[in-house]
Structures are given as C-alpha cells and as structure tokens.
Amino acid sequence: MNKKQNNFFKDVQKAFNTGVSFMLPAVVVGGIFLAISLATGEATDAGMEVTNPFMKNILDMGSAGFAMMIPLLSGYIANSLAGKPALVPGMILGYIANNPIGESQVKTGFLGAMILGVATGYFVRWIKTWKVPATIRTIMPILIVPVITTFVLGLLYIYVIAVPIGAGMDWLVDVLGKMQGSSAIILGMILGAMTAFDMGGPINKTATAFTIALMAEGVYEPNGAHRIACAVPPLAMAISTFIDRKKYTTADKDLGISAFFMGLIGITEGAIPFAVKDIKRVLPAIVIGSAIAGGLGMANGVEALVPHGGLIILPVVNGKLWYTLSMFIGVFVSVAILHFTKPNIDTVEEN
C-alpha cells in the first residue's frame, strides 16, 4: 500500500470515528427512551403498540433520537474530511440514505450514509480548490458548496446508486420466496445474516418485508428467525463490552449498556456505532451469529406472531424455549468471534 492510499484510509477511519462520537448521544437517548416506552406496550399484529399517552411521548422522543442518528453520522464524517461547509450537505444526504426515496423507494441505511458522508467530504474538498472571485468566495461555504454538493451527490444517489439497489432487493425477495420447505434452515440462516448485515438498511428491510408478507399468509416461522436475529447484534456487542473490557473504550462500554436494552426489545441499530468503528471485525461476527440464530429458529419451528423482535415479544412466540436458546447461542457465537478477532485497545494504540 503506497503512502497516498495509506493517508486515504487513515483519513476515512478518523472520519468514521468522528461520526460515531457525535452520533453516540443520539443512539443512547433514542435507545433508552424507546426501551422504556416499548417495555410498557402491548404486542399486536402491527408490532409493539404503546397506548399510554405519557409513554407515547417518550416513544416519540426516542424515535426522534434514532431519526437524527444516521444524519449525524454522515454529516460529521463529511465535516471531519472537509470542514464546516461539508456538515449540512453530509447530514441532508445521510437523511436521504436513511429514508425511502426514488421510484423504488430505496433506503440504504447506515452503509449508504457512510458512503455518502465520505463522498461529500471529498467532493467538498474538490470544490474548495476552485479558483473563484473574492466576492463569490465569501458565499461559497453557506450557499455554493452546500447547494452544489447536495444537488450533485443527491441526484447521483437517487438515479445511479439507488436504482440497482432497488432492483437487487426485488430479486432477493423473489429468491427468498422460492426457498421455503426443504430449504427452511438455509432460509433461516439467510434471513438471520440479512438482518444483521446492514442493521435497518435495505437488506434488513427486505427480510422484514418478506417475513411480514408470509405472516399475512399464516406462515410465521421465517418471522421467528428474523425476529430472533434482530436481537443478536446489539446483545452481542453489549455482552462483548461487558466481558472483554480491554477491547473497548470507555464510551464503547457506556454504549454497551444502551445496546443491551436495545437488544432486549429487538432494535438491531444498537450495534451500528460498533460496526462503523470496526466494520471488518464487528460485521462478520454479528452476521455469523445472527445467521446461526436464524437457522436454529427455523430448524426448531419457532414462530413469532408479531412483527417485532427481542425478548420483549416472548409472550406471543410459539416455541419460547428455542426462541430464547437460538438467540443466546447466536449471541455467544458473535461474542466468541469478537473475543478472538478484536485486539485490546492498548495493542491498537501501540501499533
């Protein structure tokens, strides 16, 4: 790897860490408020429903925290790479990535937001090299840079990047639909892996849409596999921070507490900050653990009767023992992989 490539990867890694540090409070606030409010809810065909007016307000505040999470990540990745002019375009594009857009209503989640954050940073860096008259230079940071950056990268995302992703998701639903019956265990493993791969992104949401469609036909086992897997990433990261404390910063350990409660109520996004900071180790660990958990759930005929996950829905699960066992076996596998692959913080700092 030459020096230029090495500097690029160092810049990007630093930007990711910056994005995570600014995103963390939103994750913690959103996760805790959602956990508190959903714990008082009732399991319905539409998921966990909060009926208490006060708790609904808490739920709304938690949802607001989660809505801010991905735009903050993308915005501060861009800000780290190119300074203040990149902040707002990065946030807007992060919001676009985390919400359905275009004819196919594609949502790319945190992975898309990370890519757009980096793209924004380098695009703004390039704009800063333009030679412009002094009168225009004064309005560059507040007018020219944000407008051009958002327009160019936003349209590129909607018309070039999002279209093939939407087509790919349609193909994936078609493939999954043909994998019932004898391929049940493989289907469960695929659903589990999809659930963890982008934690709320298009692949996760494809698994959700597929399982909900089958629920409408009275088939609940795939939803069981998917809902087991929803809890594995945040629970695995939480338990890893509890037992392998030398591998995590103080901020990570604090976040682990929040991730634990998010795991109990099936909010997969609780693992996103850990994945952003160390994607090459965290993502394989949680994908493998979730795949095993999903496969075990399907193999043992677990049925989740509502479109929600985590231990909070245990009263409306058929096959409660294997629902719980599958989840914790998946968590154990992920934690074990992290134990053997993540270095201690001291080791990282020495290198």
TrEMBL record:
Membrane-spanning ranges: 20-38, 58-78, 108-127, 139-162, 182-203, 255-275, 282-301, 321-341
InterPro entries documented for this protein: Bacterial_PTS_Sugar_Transport (IPR050864), PTS_EIIC (IPR003352), PTS_EIIC_2 (IPR013014), PTS_IIC_fruc (IPR006327)
Keywords in alphabetical order: Cell membrane, Membrane, Phosphotransferase system, Sugar transport, Transmembrane, Transmembrane helix, Transport
Matching Pfam families: PTS_EIIC
Transmembrane helix as UniProt keyword: yes
Highest taxon of source: Bacteria
The keyword Cell membrane is annotated on this UniProt entry: yes
Cell compartment(s), UniProt: Cell inner membrane
Membrane-topology descriptor: Multi-pass membrane protein
Signal peptide: none
Coiled coil: none
PTS EIIC type-2 domain location: 12-351
Protein name per UniProt: PTS EIIC type-2 domain-containing protein
Organism: Candidatus Enterococcus lowellii
